[in-house]
Design a protein that fits this description.
It is a single chain. By secondary structure, this protein is of the alpha+beta class. It has 2 domains: 24-173, 2-Layer Sandwich (Alpha-Beta Plaits), CATH 3.30.70.640; 189-249, 434 Repressor (Amino-terminal Domain) (Orthogonal Bundle), CATH 1.10.260. The protein has helices at residues 38-46, 54-67, 69-72, 112-130, 189-200, 204-211, 215-222, 231-241, and strands at residues 24-35, 81-91, 96-107, 138-148, 155-156. Strands 2-3-1-4-5 form a 5-stranded antiparallel sheet.
């Protein structure tokens, strides 16, 4: 077993001295799963929760939490974070949300705890936003998905640590992924639409608001629940993004 770095020779807790380490680019991703009732799940996806937009509030909370990690975890170093993001994957079959937090820095220590804190607080915020309709929501499977940089190198979570009912493959640790489509993407338009969102850094919730459509229509298409985007929906989304409709699918 490796020696615990947060204990000194006498077994007392300490903050690790990282002053001799080189500053390198470090990144970490962590996930949390929150299982909801059908009513709470639909409220979260549609942006119509009792307290307002569930995912928007959870995203901001997660990002803020990443920046405050050293105030919450006693032996963590204050870190200059260069990037923090929180994304959501609907797991419609379970009425659940998979929350994926990513944090990046250029420094002398890693950001695993920042990513884990962001995912955890985002999940807690989802609970707070929907508890009026579902006090029985369950937060589960909070874990580090991956990390890179530093002396220890890269790490990818083993699928054996994932609850079997989630059936998450290793490739599913990638950012901006969605569940396997129910309708096959025979012409590649769904993949092109997903790539367009990633390239334009479009968040489903905010984009839907700008287009004045329910965010559930975007998620239904991304997850394969809907075979195509309705013509009026595509038209509004293109107008909100400032592009032609065909630009979203190529």
């Amino acid at each position: 077993m490796n020696k615990l770095t947060h204990l000194d020779e006498t077994g007392a807790a300490r903050m690790v001295d990282v002053s001799a380490k080189d500053a390198t680019e470090r990144q970490a991703a962590a996930e949390a799963i929150i299982v909801l009732s059908k009513e709470a799940y639909e409220a979260a996806i549609s942006g119509s929760g009792p307290k307002g937009d569930v995912l928007a509030a959870a995203r901001i909370a997660g990002i803020m939490a990443a920046k405050k990690t050293s105030d919450l975890i006693p032996l963590c170093h204050p870190i200059a974070i260069t990037k923090a993001g929180v994304d959501f994957e609907p797991l419609a079959g379970r009425h659940a949300l998979r929350i994926l937090a990513t944090v990046k820095t250029l420094g002398q220590t890693g950001v695993e705890m920042e990513a884990l804190t962001a995912a955890s607080i985002a999940a807690l915020t989802v609970y707070d936003m929907v508890k009026a309709v579902d006090r029985g929501a369950v937060i589960e499977a909070v874990r580090l998905v991956s990390k890179s940089g530093g002396k220890s190198g890269a790490y990818f979570a083993s699928t054996r640590k994932t609850a079997p009912k989630l059936n998450i493959r290793k490739s599913e640790t990638l950012m901006n992924e969605v569940a396997a489509p129910r309708h096959r993407d025979t012409n590649g338009q769904r993949d092109a639409f997903r790539a367009f969102m990633t390239a334009q850094r479009l968040r489903a919730t905010e984009w839907a608001k700008q287009a004045d459509i329910p965010v559930a229509q975007i998620y239904a298409y991304l997850t394969g629940k809907a075979r195509v985007l309705a013509p009026e929906t595509a038209k509004r989304l293109a107008r909100a993004a400032g592009v032609r409709e065909e630009d979203m699918f190529r």
